[in-house]
Amino acid sequence: METTIRIEEDRKSKIEKVLLTIARDIIKKSTSSSLGLLSGKMGETLFLHEYSKHNKDYEGYVAQNIDDIFESVENGNVFHTYCNGLAGMCLGINYIESERDPEHESFGFVDPQIHEWLHGQLQHCIEENDYDFLHGAVGIGFYFLERYKAGDFQSEKSLESLLKFLNDSEIRNQDTIKWKNTEGIVNISLSHGMSSIILFLVEVYKSDFQSRYDIAGLIEGAVNFVLTQEIDPEKYGSYYPSASLQVEGQIYKSRLAWCYGDLGVAIMLRKASETFNQPLWKEKSAAIFQHAATRRNKNETTVMDAGLCHGSAGVFLIFYKEFLKTGHTLYAEAAQLWLNKTLEFYDEDPLHFSRVSYNSTTNAYTESSCLLDGTSGVGLALLLVLQNKSDWSKFLLV
Fold this sequence. Notes:
Elements: H1 9-28, H2 41-52, H3 59-74, H4 86-100, H5 112-127, H6 137-149, H7 156-168, E1 171-173, E2 176-178, H8 194-206, H9 215-228, H10 233-236, H11 245-248, H12 262-276, H13 279-293, H14 298-301, H15 312-326, H16 329-348, E3 357-359, E4 364-366, H17 375-386
Antiparallel strand pairs: 1-2, 3-4
């Protein structure tokens, strides 16, 4: 089975040029307002770490950036979320340090006061009924889960608290379970909704964490609910709406993206099916991926920029990872197409790569170097073409 897509030498040369441009632009920046893994300096540092495996000239910047992050935290630049704050930042640093030093003590750099503070922030999110992956309780939950898997059993308290919240706030109807967010609506997306809750629960289940709550039952009920949200792909152009049928009112197709729509649901169904040996979930996931791979033009996809969140690099990342897993040539073709589209966005403005993030509200492009919707994320995706053994995409649940 093929383990990579075929890239012409001129394409590889273009990718090398783009990666070098991204790296140079990052180190030229004097400051980052956010330290976040997905929104700021930590994501930039993650890119530099992965890029330094390919270009040793950038190794020194990784350690310097981490030192700068620690100093900024000590000076009071403290936030809690997975996207913008300490939960994601600590996961990112631990990933880098564990790769740089096999003898690294997992999370040994985290002050106990920060650990306890994050537990308090988790409780606050729970009180606000905020389960959001990027900005709420589930994202912080991934931090405590990694701490637990690394042998920190004090994290059991936080995990059990989050599981209690999900158990107590479930809305059950026969064999389905759903959750309403802080706005009182049901969201099935990967970035902010039930798909990320399910994937969190799957990871907890796989960790053999002993809970009083029925984790498998929560997963099965939640997956059953997501499946009820299916729409006719031949009529509407996608298998699922962006958030849920409750939110849509009228039915519209969802965009082709990491954040909302079919791809996130397909990732969730595939991972859940692997853990619970559910062939129907696996078949549905494959059907969604195969249909999504045929969506190519702007009207079908709404892809307007290069970023990971809702742009071409995110679509490339997902199809490329699925190809590596399955060897399915349709996914290789889709990955190739979205790789080429990403490079086209760069060619439209190579000096600044401003086509990396499109704001649909202002109908304007903005320059960004962050991981989620900026050049760091695009660079990480492009690096997969040169070195496909990296595990960084787990930070996006891919």
